[in-house]
Write a structure and sequence with these properties.
With 149 residues, this protein is mainly beta. 13% of the residues lie in helices and 48% in strands. It has one domain.
Length: 149
C-alpha cells in the first residue's frame, strides 16, 4: 500500500488505519486504534497505541502519546512513545521526548529534552562497582607527587 525505499509496506487486513488529510483543522482530544496519518492541523492531545505518522504538511500543537511516531511535519509539544520516535527530513519538533528509541534523519530539527530511560540502567546497583577505581583521585596523587619533585 505504501512504498518506501522500493518496498511495499501493506497494512494487515485486521489493522485500523485513520487518515486526517491536508486542510483538516481539529481542536480537542483524539484517541485512535491502529495506525494514524495526519496531514492537517491539530491542537490538543493525540493518543494511539499504534503508529502515528505526521506528514510534511501537518502542524500539531499539543501532547502526543503513541506506540511509535514517524514525523516529517511540525510538532510543538511533548511526546511519549512506547516504542520509538523517528524524525524524518524536514521535521521540526519543539518539545520533550520520552521513548526507548529516538532517531533523527539529517535535515530534521529538534529542540527539547530526550529521555530514553537511561536512568533505570544508571540507578541499578552493580556489584562490579567495588572493583572500579577513582581515576580523578589517582591523577591528583600523581600530580601532587610531581609538584613535590
Amino acid at each position: 500500500m505504501w512504498k518506501r525505499n522500493g518496498k511495499n509496506n501493506s497494512l494487515r487486513d485486521d489493522e485500523n488505519f485513520t487518515f486526517l488529510g491536508k486542510g483538516v483543522d481539529f481542536k480537542g482530544v483524539i484517541q485512535f486504534d491502529g495506525t494514524v496519518r495526519i496531514d492537517g492541523c491539530i491542537e490538543g492531545e493525540i493518543h494511539t497505541k499504534g503508529t502515528l505518522i505526521v506528514g510534511e504538511n501537518a502542524v500539531i500543537k499539543g501532547i502526543i502519546s503513541a506506540g511509535s511516531l514517524i514525523c516529517s511535519g511540525k510538532i510543538n509539544g511533548n511526546i511519549n512513545a512506547a516504542e520509538k520516535v523517528e524524525l524524518m527530513k524536514p521535521a521540526v519538533l519543539i518539545g520533550d521526548v520520552r521513548s526507548p528509541s529516538f532517531s533523527m534523519e539529517p535535515g530534521a530539527h529538534f529542540h527539547g529534552m530526550c529521555d530514553m530511560g537511561a536512568n533505570k540502567w544508571f540507578n541499578e546497583e552493580h556489584q562490579d562497582l567495588e572493583n572500579v577505581h577513582d581515576l580523578a583521585a589517582h591523577r591528583g596523587k600523581i600530580r601532587a607527587q610531581d609538584a613535590q619533585s
